[in-house]
Each structure stands twice: as structure tokens, then as C-alpha cells.
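step 3/5: co-fold with glutamine
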Amino acid sequence: MARYIFITGGVVSSLGKGLASAALGSLLQARGYSVRLRKLDPYLNVDPGTMSPFEHGEVFVTDDGAETDLDLGHYERFTGVSACKTDSVSSGRIYSDVLEKERRGDYLGKTIQVIPHVTNEIKDFIKIGDEDVDFMLCEIGGTVGDIEALPFFEAIRQFSQDRRGECIFMHLTLLPYISAAGELKTKPTQHSVKELRSIGIAPDILMCRSEYEIPQKEREKLALFCNVRPDAVIPALDLKSIYEAPLAYSREGMDRAVLEAFGITDAPAPDMAKWADVMDRVEHPEGTVKIAIVGKYTQLGDAYKSIAEALTHGGMHNRVKVKVEWINSEVFESEDEITTKLQGFNAILVPGGFGERGTEGKIKAAQYARENDIPYLGICLGMQMAVIEAARNLAGIKDAGSEEFDHEAGEKRFTPIVYHLKEWVEGNRTIQRDAGDDKGGTMRLGAYNATLSKGSRVAEIYGSTAISERHRHRYEVDMTYREAIEATGLKFSGISPDGKLPEIVEIPDHPWYIGVQFHPELKSRPFEPHPLFASFVEAAVKQSRLV
Ligand code: GLN
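step 4/5: write C-alpha cells
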């Protein structure tokens, strides 16, 4: 049975708890242990799929089709362990399950209470699959003191009593620097730990985010006031790159402190070669490429977190630094600014998205890339844009568009080259949806296989004609137009195994022009860059040498 590490946060949010958890997971792996990471989110939304990327950042999709928090992306990128449905839960989901059981009569008429009914539901969730790993790392979202999070804190407190000696608590806080006093302040951390202890949780390890080195005196003070061992006060200073976290935190003794807290004294030393190589590539690039991401949610980098990371991984693979610029596609719609805005980029990426706003600009970006031989990667909506562009400008279907935009506008304006997907095959089942099923839970989600054409560029990039990639979409390019569109030079080089759904398009007669209906960025890792991103960045490098 697994040992448990519960990770909580205090003082302020956005301290990088997800990253610290992910880094700890990778450090335990480096010592030969198996890990699984799990996120318990206090918000009341039943799933994060319906939350705006403006508010909550990207929705990360797992192989088994769960729409989860972007922290699961960190977990996967650092540990390489594919997350699944049971690795993410919100208060909303827990309550909804409890209420459903109540409706079914499972509680036999008892009064339903937070303790024990909600907390039991949480404890049952935490335990799923714990016989398969050495360490289960559970991160509690938000900060201690949040009202919504209380049942989670109570549940992990109870859990640590049920499994004495098998659970530890790590608390991440901030030491603010007060310049007038020239000091790092420990008081907010002391208060935060006091708050934790008032609900029965005593942290074993303190991770302290700080902009400056933490003097020994402050470490000792924190240890004394917060009742932890001095070497369990781990400084977490700002990093040059997130990928430095495993090396930096290990140097500060994070993994050692965790093992000591469990009383493990015979752990092998960590093998950090993989991370040293990753950091070497980050720190010593041999060139720079500039890539434009033309999308809608450009104000918030987190909305396309996995894409940004996958491009970085592609850069590591090619030993170049990838400079990404986010361009709001709406700027192209009013004025004809494309050339000035897109000039100077070595490649263009149009990411996924929902709704019509900004799409005319994305179509123009696809056209610009096609006509000017600029490497183009279209992801999900970005693939649909490339197909609409070819249909309109090359196949003569002037009013080509997506049913998504007509549905949104409530009127029929386009020839639906991209249509609402109502039926598809999942394993040996056929999934059917109504046109009316519009919100959460109606998408084609998770891993699906695709068959690539022999001799296509994508088959060469993947080194295979059979792939599996993660999906999150409701609309699909219509096969009926295949012939007309292929005649323009845009080939359907990847199709679902049943031959019904286009998965990849490419222009063989272009330096690099590929659109994919899935999200390759979700499976890219720093030590194992996704082949499409590695190849895309390589194409950008080649393009940069031409100019
Ligand atoms: N809105 C499009 C669809 O539902 C694309 C989705 C996406 O880019 N993730 O098909």
C-alpha cells in the first residue's frame, strides 16, 4: 500500500504548489520509487471542463477522457505518469456524488453530514489504486482557510489517523521580503501553520517560496515556531526555468526531508542525469526561433500552458530557445495587418478554441503561412481553420465554415465543411449525441487511435502509421469534402481507424504545414518531446536559416 504525501498551500495562492508536487514526484522516481499524483480542488464546479480558460487556465485532458485542472499537466510533464479520471476531483464532484447516493437511498434515511459522509467520500477517492504505487502525492488546491476546502482538510486529517505512520504533510508558503526592513518575514508562514494546526494538521515539511536566500537564522526560527525540524524547512527560490525545480529542490534537501519524515533511511541516491540533461538544453541553446501563437485567449499564458511547454520541449530537442509571441487573432479581422504582424516569425501555430470570435483572423493566419511557406501547426480548431481556408481560397467553396459558428449565431450562413459530430466509435461502442447536447460532457474526449497514410510526412515524423492522441472537440471536418479539398493539395493523411473522421491534414508540397484534430501538446515531456513539436520547431529552425 502506498505512502501518502499531502501537499497544502498557505499565505497566498499561485505559489506553484502543482509544480512543487510534480517536482517531488520526479525526485522520488529518481530514487527508484513509483508515484501517482492527485489533485483535490475545492471549487464547486463539478468538472473544470466548463470553466473559462480566462479564469482557470487550460483544461487538461487525460487518456481516459477526464477534463481536469492544468496542474495534472505539470504532474505528467515531470513524472511521465499518465493521469487518469481518478487523479482529479473537485468539491462539486464529491458533493454531487454524495447527493446522488442520498437520492438513491444508499444512506438508508440517515442525516447526511459533511462529517462523515462527505469526508468518507473524499477518503474513498484518495485511496483509489493506492496498492499500485509506492507514493501517492495528493495536492489540495487553494490555500488553508478557504471555506470550500475544509472538508478536504478534515478528510486528510482523518486519513492520517487511519493510516498512522504512512502519511506526511508538506505545506508550501511564502516568505515575503520587506525592503524597508531588508528582511524576509516568517510571520505569515507562522500564521498559516497555526491555521493548519487548528484543524488538526501539523506539517512535517515546509517549502518556503522566497525571492532571496533564506538565512540560517530564519530557517531555525521557522522550525522552532512551526514545530518542524530545521532541515525540513526547504527554501524554494525563484527558478530560471520550471525544469530546474527537481535539481534545485533536491539540492535543498526536499526529497531527503520527505524520506526522513517517513523514517526511510535506506533509499537509493537520486539519479538526476535526465534532469541535468534537460537543464543543459535549457541553459545552452545554440540559437533562437520565433513562433507566433495566433489565438483568442492570449492575455493569459496559462490558457495554452501545455502548448507553451511542448514548444519549449521542441526547442530542447533542437537545442534552440523558442521565443513565443501570443497574437490575438481578432486584430486581423478589422484591418489587413497580417503581413506586418506575422512577418519575422519562423513558424505559426493556431491552437484549439471554441466559438466564432477570432476565427476569421485564424483563417487568415493559416492562409499567410500556406502562401508564404511558413511552417504551420494547426491544433484542433487550428486544423479546422486550415481546412476552411483551403476550401474557401483554393476549392472555390467561398462560404465554407463551421457549423459551430452557425449554431452559435443561430442562423445558417456557412457551407458546413466542419460539422457537428453526432456519432463516433469508442472501442467497440458507438457514441451518439444530439445536436442539442451543447454544454459539458458532450465532446469526443480522451485518447483515440488514428491511422496515418504510408509515406505521409506525419507517418515519417511519428515513425509509425498507428498513433493514439488525446481529443477534446465537438465538431469535425466532413469527409464528404475530402476529394475537393485534397485536389487543392491539402491531404487527409490521418484518419480514424473506421475511416470516418479526419484526424490530420498536411500539404506535402509545403516546407511544413500540418493540422491535427487532437491535442499533441498534452503528451509532450521535457525528456521526451512530442514528435510533432520536435519536428515543427526543427522546421522553424530551417525557416530561420533561409531569412
Ligand atoms: N471548437 C472546436 C470543436 O469543438 C475545436 C475544439 C478545440 O479546439 N479544442 O470541434
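step 5/5: annotate
The mean pLDDT is 92.
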